[in-house]
Structures are given as structure tokens and as C-alpha cells.
Design goal:
34% of the residues lie in helices and 22% in strands. It is α/β, with parallel strands linked by helices. It folds into three domains: 182 residues, FAD/NAD(P)-binding domain, CATH 3.50.50; 138 residues, FAD/NAD(P)-binding domain (3-Layer(bba) Sandwich), CATH 3.50.50; 67 residues, BFD-like [2Fe-2S]-binding domain (Arc Repressor Mutant, subunit A, Orthogonal Bundle). A hairpin with a 5-residue loop joins strand 13 and strand 14. Helix 10 packs antiparallel against helix 11 and helix 14 packs across helix 16. InterPro entries: BFD-like_2Fe2S-bd_dom_sf, FAD/NAD-bd_sf, FAD/NAD-binding_dom, Metab_Enz_Cyan_OpOx_G3PDH, Opine_Oxase_asu/HCN_bsu, SoxA_A3.
Length: 459
């Protein structure tokens, strides 16, 4: 069944866009991998009850989910999109069965992914990203027990505050060096997002009031498994060494756009030096280098939930105009308050990017660190290959198979780029974005064969 608009991702951007587009007269198909709409930020919000410790900001996502109750919106849960074909449409699978959704317009709202935090021992059982732990909190009500939070960024403060509110405070907060002083010149603009800034300060105050041990300026991360199956976490602060034990070690160093789907289409991308990641090249409405393909939300550049909501609505207005459902004057008039909301939501971002930049030790970790988890390739092997001719992502794949496993580089590409940049003394912006081939998610041969002959990829 064809639709005027196919939206990929039911997070804040996708949900906001779906409602605006449907109210404007378009038929919308909303595809999402999860059982319920909400994305990562509002995951499971429509079904959660009695978990007030997740906070008021999380609960606000319920209004977006309710907005999907519109006759023009068809929500397809548990849908894994693995190809967008310019001739056929959006190709996706559910329960082992492949489907095609033709559409005149496509909006990609796949959001962000956590940046990998590689260091010796990061692949051991008992270590996981803080965002993944938060997913378990939202999805299943599972609160991390006897956990250490490590890394940097506002999400660490939020997760710590949620754990405290749930009655399972973290054992410690181990924070990598921050650059608050360096970020101060960007503070005046950040004041336009004062309510968000105040919320962040409130989270910090809550952590301090709970008496959580807080180690600042931490470096030289290393983790090992103890004889009784716990995690020993070693690090330094200045010249002092520390060793803590815990049942669970949660790491976080920010998020980056999910760009595998946009890259698989061959869309133009640009390097965001402030966020240290590649993102699709977009106009102010979210339109990509392919006129009928739009990108909204964190998948087009990290901005957070409120920015994603505004970007989704803006993209929907542009699509309505492109489809002949809304004239330019009406589009611009409705866009004006959205642009003001977007500006406020993004005002804090330059300050955060400067204050919580990723330490170089995690961009190019020690030699013994496993970087590509799928193929078990170490940082030392990548350095050696880079120094002997594998000076790009494609050559590195040929040499060591980095990025060739099931994750297709999601967990290693940023680190591989950092290691090549270090070894060859080149800017990271000259390395990538890596070419992504479909299917972008693991599917069976039967799912591919059921669609018949596919156009051959030539680049």
C-alpha cells in the first residue's frame, strides 16, 4: 500500500512530522523498530505507569504518542527498514517477511546513537552504555544496581538523578576532563535556553545532595573482571590512581547521528567538527541532496528532543508545500514559531559541545583496546595497518575487516577514523563518511529474494 509520506522512526521528530503531515491532508506510513512509538527519548512512554522517577520531561512524550491517533497515520511497529530504493520505495521487514512501501516523499527520523567509549576492558560483561541502561529503565523498569557512571555529558547527570529517585543511587560518578572554562564564551547564547540550563544545574545539585562520590578529570580508564565476577575499574585523576569495584559499569561520551541509512542512499554528508561526526547535508527545512528525501531530528545533527520535535514539524510543512497542499506563505507563517522554538532548543548546544568534548584518549585508545568488536580488531592493529598503507576506511576494511561485521561499523567507525587520523596526521574530516551498502540491518536471504531482482549498486 503506497502512502504520500513514509516516515522512518517514531521518535519526537517522526511523531511530530506525522501529525502535521496527516492534518495537512497527506497519507502517512510511520515505520519504527519498536513495539510502541516514542523513540529512544520517549521509549515506552505510552505504556509506563508508576515510574515517576523517570521525570516530567520524559512524561511529556505522551502527548506526541497520542497525536498518532489520526486516520491519516498508519503506524507500523517492529518494522526494520533495511533499504530505501529510489525506484521501489522504502523496503522493510517484520517477523521475517519483507515489505515495500512506495512513497512520493520520505522522512528519515532515525535519531542518534551513543558514541562508543573504547578503553582496555570495555567489551567485558558488566559494561554497557549509560543510554542502554536507561532503555532498560524505560522499557522494563530495570534500575541499574551497584553501578558506576563514567564518562561525560548531560545524560550521565540525568541517569544518575533517575537512579537516585528510583532508590538505587550510583556507587560513583567518574567524569572525564570537562572544558567548562573553554566553553564560557559560548555561555551568553546558551542563556536563551536558560530553562534547560537550570534543569541541568538541578540534576547536579541532586547528585551532590545524595552524597555520590564524584571523581573529576578522570583518565586512563581500564576495566577487569574480578574472581567473584564483579568489575574492577581503574582510572587516574591527576597523579592519583583509583580502583573501584562495582556490579555494573556504565559509560557515556555523548551521542552522534545515526547516518547509515542516509549514507546507504548516497546522500551528501558533511563533517560536524564540534560534534566530531558526519551528518547529512540539509537545508533549513531538512531537505537532503535528494529533493524528495528529508531528514529530521538527531539523525541530521544532535539537538535533543525539543529540537527534534521542531525539526520534524518543519520538515512536514516543507513536504506539504512540495506536495501542493500548502502554499509558501502558509508554510512560512506556520514555520515561524517552530523556528523560534528550534533556536531556543539549540542555543545550549554549542556550549555543551565545547564543555563536553571527547578526550583524545577515547578517539585513539591504547593499542590493546579492542576497537572493532565484531571482528575483534585492536587499536594497535589499526595503527599498524594505517602506517603501512591502509590510510582510509575502505582500505582498512580490506586489510582488517573493520566495519564488516553485523553492526557495519556503528560501534567502531568513529574510533577507526580517530586512529587513522592520529597515525597519518590527517584531520578526521578527510576520512569518511564510509560507504554503507544495503541491507543496512541484518536480514535473511529469503527476505531479500522475496522482493525479486534488485538494482545493482555501482558506487
Amino acid at each position: 500500500m503506497s502512502a504520500d509520506l513514509v516516515i522512518i522512526g517514531a521518535g519526537p521528530a517522526g511523531m511530530a512530522a506525522a501529525r502535521v503531515a496527516a492534518e495537512g491532508g497527506l497519507s502517512v506510513t510511520l515505520l519504527d523498530e519498536q513495539e510502541r512509538a516514542g523513540g529512544q527519548i520517549y521509549r515506552n512512554v505510552g505504556a509506563v505507569a508508576g515510574r515517576g522517577w523517570l521525570g516530567a520531561d520524559y512524561a511529556r512524550g505522551g502527548a506526541l504518542v497520542q497525536g498518532l491517533d489520526h486516520p491519516g497515520i498508519t503506524h507500523q511497529p517492529r518494522a526494520t527498514v533495511w533499504r530505501i530504493d529510489a525506484r521501489r520505495g522504502v523496503i522493510w521487514s517484520r517477523d521475517g517477511q519483507s515489505h515495500v512501501s512506495p512513497a512520493a516523499h520520505v522522512l528519515i527520523a532515525t535519531g542518534a546513537q551513543e558514541r562508543p567509549v573504547p578503553f582496555p576492558g570495555w567489551t567485558l560483561p558488566g559494561l554497557m552504555p549509560a543510554g542502554a541502561a536507561q532503555i532498560l529503565m524505560k522499557q522494563s523498569g530495570m534500575v541499574p544496581d551497584e553501578a558506576i557512571l563514567s564518562g561525560a555529558g548531560p545524560l550521565l547527570y540525568l541517569v544518575a538523578a533517575q537512579m537516585i529517585a528510583a532508590g538505587a543511587p550510583p556507587v560513583a560518578l567518574v567524569e572525564t576532563p570537562t572544558a567548562i572554562t573553554h566553553a564560557l564564551p559560548k555561555l551568553p547564547r546558551a542563556l536563551f535556553g536558560l530553562p534547560t540550563l537550570i534543569k541541568g544545574l538541578g540534576l547536579i545539585a541532586r547528585i551532590r545532595a545524595a552524597g555520590i562520590p564524584w571523581y573529576r578529570g578522570a583518565a586512563d580508564f581500564r576495566a577487569e573482571t574480578t574472581e567473584d565476577g564483579r568489575i574492577r575499574f581503574d582510572f587516574t585523576t591527576g597523579k592519583q590512581s583509583h580502583s573501584l569495584t562495582c556490579g555494573l559499569l556504565l559509560t557515556h561520551l555523548g551521542v552522534i547521528p545515526q547516518s547509515h541509512l542516509t549514507r546507504s542512499m548516497g546522500l551528501a554528508h558533511e563533517y560536524d567538527a564540534e560534534q566530531g561526526a558526519w551528518r547529512p547535508t540539509l537545508d533549513p527545512w531538512g531537505q537532503s541532496s535528494e529533493p524528495h528525501v528529508f531528514v529530521a531530528g538527531d539523525g541530521g545533527g544532535i539537538g535533543g528532543a525539543e529540537a527534534a520535535r521542531a525539526k520534524g514539524a518543519l520538515a512536514a510543512l516543507a513536504i506539504l508545500h512540495q506536495a501542493g497542499k500548502l502554499d509558501a506563505a502558509g508554510r512560512d507563517r506556520r514555520a515561524a514559531p517552530l523556528r523560534r522554538a528550534l533556536s531556543r532548543a539549540l542555543s545550549l548546544r554549542p556550549f555543551l559541545d565545547a564543555a563536553y568534548s571527547v578526550p583524545s584518549a577515547f578517539l585513539a585508545p591504547p593499542d590493546e583496546t579492542i576497537v572493532c568488536r565484531c571482528e575483534e580488531v585492536t587499536a594497535g592493529s589499526i595503527r599498524k595497518a594505517a602506517c603501512t598503507g591502509a590510510e582510509g576506511l575502505r582500505l582498512m576494511r580490506t586489510s582488517l575487516r573493520t566495519g564488516m561485521g553485523p553492526c557495519q561499523g556503528r560501534m567502531c567507525e568513529t574510533t577507526v577514523i580517530g586512529l587513522i587520523a592520529e597515525a597519518t596526521d590527517r584531520p578526521a574530516s578527510t576520512l569518511g563518511p564510509g560507504r554503507i551498502r544495503t541491507p543496512v540491518k541484518p536480514v535473511t536471504l529469503a527476505e531479500i529474494a522475496a522482493l525479486g531482482p534488485q538494482p545493482e549498486e555501482t558506487t
